[in-house]
């Protein structure tokens, strides 16, 4: 059973795929300097660092453009949970994606326009307005403005808290990417969601996701 057709603008789709590509590059090139031995490294340290820096700058640029888009078009409202019983609905969505594994269509709720459910809305709010800015700011500070941080913190080099924070935000970003891909494959709308993100139009299966 399908629902009304859904559409997604070209810019949102480009932002989605460009951000995904940036995250993949940042994750791979971020792992190499920390954990990749010479026998396992896809790139050497210098090459990985260079690619990581450029991918981070690219992410910062497209994020800034997307932020302008969100504000100018009012698209940010799609990330704002609405309606009552938010926590009960959130719990139902968690059950849908974990225990039920998408078998029970009644939990595949979506917004009025069939775009996001409450779990997705809260996740996007956190990622777009908290995680991404923190990841970008810590990365740019480490790359371009190390002189503004203290020389020492707790007897260690002053850059270590900044580097640790950036690493932690990077781990969270990589984890979100994995969870995001998983969520896109659960439930009756898995194929429709993928078609929507590629083609910009699809029909919703039962309940939306």
Protein model, in words:
The protein is mainly alpha-helical and 209 residues long. The protein has one domain (2-204): Transmembrane di-heme cytochromes, Chain C (Fumarate Reductase Cytochrome B subunit, Up-down Bundle), CATH 1.20.950.20. The protein is 62% helix and 7% strand. It is built from six helices and four strands, in the order βααααββααβ. It has a two-stranded antiparallel sheet with strand order 1-4. Helix 1 runs antiparallel to helix 2 (45-73), helix 1 (10-35) crosses helix 5 and helix 4 runs antiparallel to helix 5. The longest helix is centred in the first third of the chain and has 29 residues, at 45-73. Residues 204-209 have low confidence and may be disordered.
Count of spatially separate domains: 1
Class by alpha and beta content = mainly alpha
Beta-strand content: 5-15%
The radius of gyration over CA amounts to 19 Å
* CATH superfamily grouping: Transmembrane di-heme cytochromes, Chain C
Gross morphology? globular
CATH architectural grouping: Up-down Bundle
What is the chain-wise order of helices and strands? EHHHHEEHHE
End-to-end gap: 14 Å
* E-strand count: 4
What labels describe this entry?
209 residues; mainly alpha; Fumarate Reductase Cytochrome B subunit; two-stranded antiparallel ribbon; two-stranded antiparallel sheet; 6 helices; 4 strands; 7% strand; disordered C terminus
Fold topology:
Layout: E1 2-7, H1 10-35, H2 45-73, H3 86-97, H4 118-144, E2 152-153, E3 156-157, H5 160-184, H6 190-199, E4 201-205
Antiparallel strand pairs: 1-4, 2-3
Helix pairs in contact: 1-2, 1-5, 2-4, 4-5
